[in-house]
Each structure stands twice: as structure tokens, then as C-alpha cells.
Amino acid sequence: MMTTDIQQISLQLESENSRDRLLALVSLREVSAEDAVPLIKKVLNDEVLPVRSMAVFALGVKQTDECYPILVKLLEADPDYGIRADAAGALGYLQDARAYEPLARAFYEDTEWLVRFSAAVSLGNLGDIRAQELLLQALDSQETVIQQAAIAALGEIKAVDAIDEMLRFADSNDWLVRQRLAQALGNFNTDKSISALKFLAKDSEPQVKETALFSLNLLQQNSKEGV
Length: 227
What we know:
Layout: H1 3-12, H2 18-27, H3 33-41, H4 49-61, H5 67-77, H6 81-94, H7 100-109, H8 113-126, H9 132-138, H10 144-156, H11 163-167, H12 175-184, H13 191-200, H14 206-225
């Protein structure tokens, strides 16, 4: 992108109209990370929450060495739980192994379920097996969405030792939980997971059934390819 275009976006980020600032952040999709991050930082403390939220998300997409410490600070200290949740989500996009510790702390210590949910999702994105114990504890959460996130994340980190704990959700009353399980089991080519997927492939909820069949087909394809 030309320097003049970047300057125009920079000016737009200073507009009094929050819609202009949001549109400027959207425009950064075409800008390199090195050029985008200094511009994103201009609105990280914006008075309008959607602008801040989009800026935090952008730091997870436009990755430079600056992004990690900024996001960790937001996760640990921002007074707005929505921003803390956004920071947790953005850390997952970074795919930086250092994010395990701050995300784990956020899951254990933050009192807002949305932050804990985002932390669990991002721990799955990291693919770090160290998260297994934490995610197993998350299965006992009172919030169904956190259970869903934990099931999905256990699949992403390929926590094969957790399959038995995950299978207790095969007959959950919440079909979204069953769907997450069907998706997660597609990461495990074991007799137990395949048996559970065949069970879920007969589910009364079409979306659960379709997800289970997709996972079964994926496992079969991977077996043929030797994955």
C-alpha cells in the first residue's frame, strides 16, 4: 500500500466519527503488519468500545514483536472484561507458546465467564498439551459455553488421555455440546472415539449428525493417507 494511503488511514483514525475509525481499522487489512501496528495502537484506548475491540482483534492478525506484550497487558489489567476477552482471543491467533501462562492465569483467576471462555478457546488454538489439566477442569464448569470451549480445545491439543472424560458429554441435553464433541473427536483415531462418533452419527439433531459423519470421514481419509 502506498504511503499516501497509509497517511489517509492514519488521519481517518483521528476522526471524531467512530464509524470513520472503524472503517479505518477495516482498511488495515491491506496494510503490512509493520505499518499497521503503529496505527492500531492509536485507538487501543479509544473511548468507543467497538473501536477498541476491533483494534485488539487486529493485533492478533497483524503480528509483530510488539503485539504479544500489549495483548498480555490488556488481558491482565484492562478494567473492561470485554477487552480482556478480546485480548485472550487475539493471543490465540498469535500462535505464540509464551501465551500459555497468561491464558492459563486468566482462566483460573478472571471472574468473568467470557474471559475464561476466550482463554479456553485460545489455549486450544495454541495446541499446547500443557493445557490438558486446565481444560479437564473446565469440563466441570457451570457455564455450558465453557464446557463447549473445553471440549473443542481438548480436541485441538489432541489430548488423547482425555477422551473418557469427553465422552460423558455424548448424551448431553445441549445439542451444541454434542456437536462440539463430534467435532473434537475427529482429532482422535481410536476405537473409543470412532465408536462414539458412530453413536453421534445417529443423533436426533441434524447438525450433530452431520458433524459426526464429517469427523468419521475425516478420520477415514487420514487413515488412508497415513496421517
